[in-house]
Each structure stands twice: as structure tokens, then as C-alpha cells.
Design brief:
429 residues; 2 domains; seven-stranded antiparallel β-sheet; 0% helix; elongated
Length: 429
């Protein structure tokens, strides 16, 4: 099953300049497509950001979590001393969550579904100058109506064991978020989270006097039902509050988070010999929130109508000398298939909240051709592996290699050699 595609237009400009320098350039047009919905979807944590006001401020800004893309669901929790309410940034909702006084002060928990364009940070007005903390957690694969069920608990200075409420989930593979906050008027304290949960964010106010601290944990409730009570432990008997939130899974999708794209190449100085020009492959990322049948990424030259699977002479203007355009020149000069290759030996995959073993690169010992009629498999995962958000890093400076022959022809002014690459994200190993 084809799950998504990214189209790359790769250009090799061959304009003769003084000193025999040919300028090489690559331009990319990326068109990621979402996969069809699949059963057995799961929600994954992507990343988090925190902030605190130190000795106090009238507002608190929390950065957008790293890697957020359209459709991600962000959960923000703002905790402050005092009893005044907050001014909520545009686009954030508290429907079904919590906003009100707690034993330690005032707390607000909000959600926002990311759009195609998001600001670098989000700011909450605190009304008066006071100490406050903020957290934003980003999740992948959550339903656009994200809140399945919530419950809150709170307590005064009556011990160090503080129980977050049990909730009953109604959907399998629900991500359960436990958000805890406390305030010690005497100074610093520590928070020990419940067992069988994963810490996602923690922040304490700085400065003298009282300390406000907050921590977020999550877990996956594989089977619908009661989560059971989850107990936080503080190092002192202090006022506290907690909210338990179930995030409803979406229908599941397989998509490029950041689609593959080839970068610009440096210039080549003609010397009468075959030459190799190198560049660093750009990083890309895949989100898999499906039932986990595995996935792979392939690339091939695109030989469909109006495209070229190999580097071919191309006029980008209405005319290029006696050639007409824009388009490929009929009978124009070409480079051999497989001139552009990718070596993945130094690259690796990482995840913040994914599951299963990491995807495996296929172009390590032998470089894979990118501009060929047959698709080359760049990376693959086994069934149940590579689920959630995964991204690449570590491509070497020689990961991309373009071989130009001695027979490379000088083109008319403004003409280029162009190839159309088709990157495809497929379900299955």
C-alpha cells in the first residue's frame, strides 16, 4: 500500500562561466500525503517545553514543542500562586479539562490542535505579578476531539503521598497523562512520580521564598478500563493538585512528518575528468500511528508524462536560445541513470516517544541510486517496529554523491539538467 509521496525536482545547472565553473543547484517541491486510516491506532508523545517566572511576572510564555506538525495535539498546564484566573492564548481551549483554584493556588489545563502554521511560543496572562510554571506536551496520533475523560484531585498539607485520580478509558491504546503541581512555602522540594509511568516534563520556580513545582507523567492504557490510582510523592507535606487526562487515539496514519529533500550541491570546476560532487542529505521524519504493519521508504526517478527519471536538459523559461520551454528539451542531453547516489552509513534514527525497534537503513555498505527507473529501498521497518515519531540524523558530508562524466555538455544560457525524484512511504516491511 502506498502511504505517502514526496516529489523532488533536482536541478544541475550547467552554465559555462569564466574559469570553467559549472554551477550546481537543487530545488525541491515536497508534497507529503497522508495514509488512509487504519484500525488499532496508538498515540505517541513527541516533545515538551517548560517555562517558569522566577520570583514572579504578569505573564508566562511557553515555547512551541520541537517538531510539532499540523494535527499534533498539545496539552498545556499553567500553575500559579494566588487565586486569579488566566488569560488564555487564542486557539487554546479548556473545554473538558480544568481551570480554577487549587490548594496550592490556581491551575489551568488546556489543549490545542496544531495547524499548518504555529507561533514560536504561547503566552498566558497571569493578571498580577506572581510565581508560575508552564508546560506544553505534544502528542502524535490523537483524535482532533482529543479529550476522552478527565478527573482532578487535590489536597492540603496532609502527608507526602498524593494520589492522582483513577479514570476509566473507553478506547484501547489510550494515552493517559498525569499532571501534578505543588507549592512549598518554605523552599525547594522533590516530586517522585508513580511507578509504570514515563516522565515527560518537570519545572520548578527559581528565586527566593516559596517554590512552585510541577511534573507530567504519561502511560499507555492498552485495554480500555480503569487506570487505577497513581500516587505522586513529595519530599514535604505541602499543598498539591493533580489532573488525570485520557487522550483519545485517532484513526491512525502513516505519513512523512518531514519529507526527504536533497540540498543544494556546490559548484564543479571542469578539469577534463570524471568528477564526484558531494553534499549532505537533509534529515527526514516519519510518523506511524497505525496498527504497526511496518513501513519502508523508496525513491526512484519519475518517468511519468512531463517528467524525467534521469538528469536531462531542461529550459525553465519560455525560450532558451532556440529551445522553447518551460520543459525538457526533446532529444536533449542527459546524464546516465544512477548519477546521484545516497549512502546512509553514518545516519541513524531516533525517537522521543515511539515504540518498537528503530527503522533500518538499506544503503550502508553500497550507495543507493536515486535517479533510476527502478525504485531503491532506502529504509525499512519490520511489523510492529518504528511506530510513533521517528527522525533521522547524522548524514555525512558525502552522503549524497553526484558523478559528472567527462562528456558533460555545456547547455544554453539558463538551461539546466533536471531530474524528477519520487520518494514514496509505503506500509509493510
Amino acid at each position: 500500500m502506498r502511504a505517502g509521496r514526496a516529489l523532488n525536482l533536482v536541478e544541475l545547472a550547467a552554465m559555462l562561466r569564466e574559469g570553467g565553473v559549472y554551477a550546481l543547484a537543487i530545488a525541491a517541491l515536497l508534497v507529503p500525503l497522508l495514509a488512509p486510516a487504519q484500525a488499532g491506532a496508538t498515540t505517541y508523545f513527541r516533545s515538551a517545553e517548560t517555562a517558569q517566572t522566577g520570583s514572579g511576572a504578569t505573564s508566562i510564555a511557553v515555547n512551541r514543542p520541537a517538531g510539532v506538525v499540523a494535527g499534533d495535539v498539545m496539552i498545556a498546564s499553567i500553575d500559579a500562586e494566588g487565586s486569579g484566573s488566566f488569560t488564555v492564548p487564542s486557539g487554546w481551549s479548556s473545554t473538558g479539562l480544568f481551570s480554577g483554584t487549587a490548594f496550592f493556588g490556581f491551575s489551568g489545563v488546556y489543549f490545542h490542535v496544531a495547524g499548518s502554521s504555529e507561533p514560536a511560543s504561547y503566552s498566558w496572562g497571569l493578571g498580577t505579578t506572581r510565581k508560575a510554571t508552564g508546560k506544553i506536551l505534544s502528542y502524535v496520533g490523537v483524535d482532533p476531539a482529543p479529550i476522552e475523560v478527565t478527573s482532578t484531585t487535590a489536597g492540603a498539607s496532609s502527608g507526602t503521598s498524593d494520589a492522582a485520580a483513577s479514570i476509566t478509558t473507553t478506547v484501547n491504546n489510550t494515552k493517559v497523562l498525569l499532571d501534578f503541581a505543588a507549592n512549598d512555602s518554605l523552599g525547594s522540594f522533590t516530586i517522585t512520580p508513580p511507578g509504570s509511568t514515563t516522565k515527560r516534563a518537570s519545572v520548578f520556580t527559581s528565586g527566593s521564598g516559596s517554590v512552585l513545582g510541577t511534573q507530567a507523567q504519561d502511560l499507555t492504557q492498552a485495554t480500555a478500563g480503569a487506570t487505577g490510582t497513581k500516587t505522586f510523592t513529595t519530599s514535604a507535606s505541602i499543598p498539591w493538585g493533580a489532573i488525570t487526562i485520557a487522550l483519545k487515539p485517532g484513526t491512525g496514519a502513516l505519513s512523512f512528518d518531514a519529507a526527504p529533500a536533497t540540498p543544494a550541491l556546490p559548484n564543479v570546476t571542469l578539469n577534463g575528468q570524471t568528477q564526484t560532487t558531494n553534499a549532505t542529505m537533509s534529515n527526514f521524519a516519519v510518523d506511524d500511528t497505525t496498527s504497526g504493519s511496518g513501513w519502508n521508504v523508496t525513491v526512484a526517478g519519475n518517468a511519468s508524462a512531463g517528467n524525467s527519471a534521469v538528469f536531462k536538459q531542461y529550459c525553465p523559461n519560455a525560450t532558451c536560445g532556440s529551445d522553447t520551454g518551460p520543459g525538457y528539451i526533446s532529444g536533449g542531453a542527459t546524464l546516465p541513470a544512477g548519477s546521484l547516489t545516497l549512502n546512509t552509513a553514518s545516519a541513524s534514527w531516533s525517537t522521543t516517544g515511539g515504540s518498537g525497534s528503530a527503522p533500518v537503513f538499506q544503503c550502508n555498505s553500497t550507495a543507493c541510486p536515486l535517479d533510476a527507473s527502478s525504485a531503491a529501498k532506502i529504509v525499512s521497518t519490520a511489523s510492529g517496529a518504528g511506530r510513533g515519531p521517528w527522525k533521522t540524523s547524522g548524514f555525512s558530508a558525502t552522503s549524497l554523491a553526484l558523478s559528472t562524466p567527462t562528456t558533460l555538455l555545456v547547455l544554453r544560457e539558463s538551461e539546466v539538467y533536471r531530474v524528477d525524484l519520487l520518494w514514496t512511504l509505503n506500509s509493510g516491511p
